[in-house]
């Protein structure tokens, strides 16, 4: 069975690491890993391949950055150029980035069945580029691997056939279980930054709706600066956010008050998360990882596609347009952590195996 897996952005390297391993351990599976080149800095790409044992990409299309149309269009063309000669039985795509959509569309137009890992997530905000990408990708997928029951319900309510949907759990939970315990004793970075376990908040901000709107960008960084008067705030800075802070002439000021560092690898990030007192983020992945590591999390967004943890009372959604973000962050910091659900919503930590098993036991067929 020939499979082409398409990845390109930081969270996709993490998700693909466990699925790729599981696929390649099976007889008769030949996987070609294609990197779109959407993320290209060493700290945004290479480090994840090295740390998580993801095989080196067989092809790097080196598409790089650009406007949505340019980036997605160039990927579509380049991925088609790979799929025609490869003629795989399946194309696997992950999550909701422009790489996801380009991979799915290139395959669907060639009548190659598409597998979507992380199907059915919905924020119900079509203003988000990610929501457009996931809705369209699901629509052309033959196998929809949903991480949670909520995702399954979303697909049902959009009329997807049950026989195409598999609720397998979240592959990021698999990764956290595989590598998370190693993070416990990985304190070199904490020492280097002169921070102590439980004595800092960890923040990441990168979502376009937050970085590309000057009011929201200012509100978020004002709140983080206020929070830093209560507790040290560590911020591994996404390149998009660095560029926007720089353009708004905020970078220097923010740098003085927060512990701002370059993006870190998965293992250092897991260590930073596990030892934090609070996580403040707009990341899709990190809002779940904080739960996996037992750390409360404030989500600086208007909505989330991972609603389960908000409903459980673990995560709190705080809109960056709310007038009282700073107060709510401080309240959350000192709040007593609620008990964790014994039966978490993200599966049993074997999502990747279930995905590989299902792909191998299905006859490829186009979704109609
Ligand atoms: C993308 C995804 C987002 C995901 C995020 C994960 C889309 C539409 N968005 O957002 O869903 O949460 O990845 O991190 O696909 N840049 C660099 N070096 C890099 C990569 C990017 O400097 O290695 C800079 C460039 O200036 C670029 C900007 O970051 O223009 C944004 O990168 P891009 O890949 O377009 O979107 P992300 O914000 O990373
Ligand atoms: N992450 C990382 N280093 C960082 C910031 C994030 O390894 O400096 C990891 C994080 O732990 C999670 C993933 O990257 O596993 C999430 O990626 P990101 O927030 O970029 O994208 P999203 O999940 O929002 O699509």
UniProtKB/TrEMBL annotation:
Protein name from the UniProt record: UDP-N-acetylglucosamine 2-epimerase (Non-hydrolyzing)
Residues of the UDP-N-acetylglucosamine 2-epimerase domain: 22-359
A Pfam short name: Epimerase_2
Isomerase is among the record's keywords: yes
Keyword Ribosomal protein applies: no
Record EC number: 5.1.3.14
Keyword tags: Isomerase
Family of this protein: Belongs to the UDP-N-acetylglucosamine 2-epimerase family.
GO molecular function, one term: UDP-N-acetylglucosamine 2-epimerase activity
SUPFAM superfamilies linked to this entry: UDP-Glycosyltransferase/glycogen phosphorylase (SSF53756)
């Amino acid at each position: 069975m020939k499979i082409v897996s398409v990845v390109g952005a930081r969270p996709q390297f993490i998700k693909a690491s466990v699925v790729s391993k599981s696929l390649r351990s099976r007889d008769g599976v030949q996987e070609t890993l294609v990197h779109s080149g959407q993320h290209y800095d060493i700290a945004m790409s290479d480090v994840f391949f090295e740390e998580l044992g993801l095989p080196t990409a067989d092809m790097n299309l080196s598409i790089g950055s650009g406007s949505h149309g340019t980036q997605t269009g160039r990927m579509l063309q380049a991925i088609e150029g790979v799929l025609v000669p490869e003629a795989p039985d399946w194309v696997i795509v992950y999550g909701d980035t422009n790489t996801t959509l380009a991979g799915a569309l290139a395959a669907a137009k060639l009548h190659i069945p598409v597998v979507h890992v992380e199907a059915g997530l919905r924020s119900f905000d079509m203003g988000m580029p990610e929501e457009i990408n996931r809705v369209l990708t699901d629509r052309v997928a033959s196998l929809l691997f949903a991480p949670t029951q909520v995702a399954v319900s979303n697909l049902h309510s959009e009329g997807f056939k049950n026989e195409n949907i598999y609720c397998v759990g979240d592959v990021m939970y698999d990764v956290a279980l595989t590598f998370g315990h190693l993070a416990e004793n990985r304190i070199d970075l904490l020492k280097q930054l002169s921070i102590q376990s439980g004595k800092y908040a960890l923040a990441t901000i990168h979502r376009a709706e937050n970085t590309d709107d000057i009011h929201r960008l200012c509100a978020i960084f004002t709140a983080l600066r206020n929070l830093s008067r209560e507790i040290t705030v560590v911020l591994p800075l996404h390149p998009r956010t660095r560029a926007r802070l720089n353009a708004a002439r905020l970078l220097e000021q923010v740098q003085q008050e927060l512990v701002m560092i370059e993006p870190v690898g998965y293992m250092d990030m897991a260590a930073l998360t596990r030892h934090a007192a609070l996580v403040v983020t707009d990341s899709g992945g990190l809002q779940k990882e904080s739960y996996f590591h037992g750390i409360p999390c404030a989500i600086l967004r208007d909505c989330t596609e991972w609603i389960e943890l908000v409903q459980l009372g673990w995560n709190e959604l705080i809109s960056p347009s709310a007038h009282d973000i700073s107060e709510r962050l401080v309240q959350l910091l000192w709040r007593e952590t609620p008990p964790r659900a014994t039966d978490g919503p993200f599966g049993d930590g074997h999502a990747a195996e279930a995905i590989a098993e299902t792909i191998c036991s299905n006859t490829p067929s186009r979704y109609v």
